[in-house]
Specification:
With 157 residues, the protein is mainly α. The chain has 7 helices and 2 strands, in the order αααααββαα. Helix content is 62%, strand content 10%. It has a two-stranded antiparallel sheet. This is MarR family transcriptional regulator.
């Protein structure tokens, strides 16, 4: 890891590379069906996006939030509906794009989905106290906002 941090390249390039490495590490840690939840990673991410949003989201909104195509999100939503973890509702803002809300079973399943993240957070506690984790979270949120503002020919929409 130090090799990337000590390079002569623009540190923003190294930051992008490090985010990809972090993504890979997280995917390896959390990918595959979770024995406790029966959900694959994308389904768990979509369920989480529905559970935590103040306003129930549409499929395109979830896609933008998570950086996946609408088609991928729709497949995950369809599976979550079949499992009775989420349900569509009429969208007062749009006739054809329903909003999605978690059922009680979906909220319960989300608590199960979060357990591995909570376990990892406990493992990381020695190196990342609450203040450091909060600062890093805020910096990553700022980075995400900046990346989302940049035009990209592969925007998932």
């Amino acid at each position: 890891m130090a090799d990337m941090l000590a390079s002569n390249r623009d540190p923003r390039v190294d930051l992008i590379a490090m985010v990809y490495r972090l993504h890979g590490a997280m995917r390896n840690r959390f990918a595959g069906p979770n024995a406790n939840t029966g959900l694959v990673l994308l389904e768990a991410l979509v369920l989480g996006a529905i559970v935590v949003n103040r306003d129930p989201p549409t499929v395109p909104e979830i896609g933008r939030m998570l950086g996946f195509t609408r088609q991928s999100i729709q497949r995950a939503v369809n599976k979550l509906i079949a499992l009775e973890l989420v349900e569509p509702r009429a969208n007062p803002r749009h006739k054809r794009a329903p909003i999605f809300v978690a059922t009680q079973a979906g909220r319960d399943r989300m608590r199960e989905v979060q357990r591995p993240s909570e376990a990892l957070a406990e493992e990381l506690a020695a190196e990342f106290d609450v203040a450091r984790a909060t600062a890093l979270r805020d910096e990553l949120a700022a980075l995400l906002s900046a990346v989302q503002r940049c035009a990209s020919p592969t925007d998932p929409d």
